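Hello again, I could really use a second opinion on something today. For a while now I've been wondering how a particular protein folds. Please have a think about how the structure follows from the sequence. Here's the protein in full, and shout if anything looks odd to you:

***
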Amino acid sequence: MSVSDTLQTFVRNHLAKLLGIAPDAVALDRKLSDYGLDSVDAVLMAGELEEHFDIEINPASFIRYPTFETMIQGLADTIEASGSGAAIEEQAGSTPSNVP
């Protein structure tokens, strides 16, 4: 699983749990505000991403990128450029995809 795929799975599962919907119902081509979420939700999600993937994320990323999909790709590019991508791909192989 690629870094981008791993991040997509995490974000999709996180949003599904937060919104009480199925992960497949989460459209990553939408914005945080489209789901009725706010900056507090962005900060909380950034914190969970940081903890889960051992990376630093500026919560402003959720505002800077027009969609979750573009944010995920930006994060994946940053992770891969830092050399942490292999560790995340390895971690994805050992973590069930339905656990955020």
About this structure: Residues 28 and 68 are 5 Å apart (CA to CA). Residues 89-100 have pLDDT under 50 and may be disordered. The chain has one domain: 3-94.
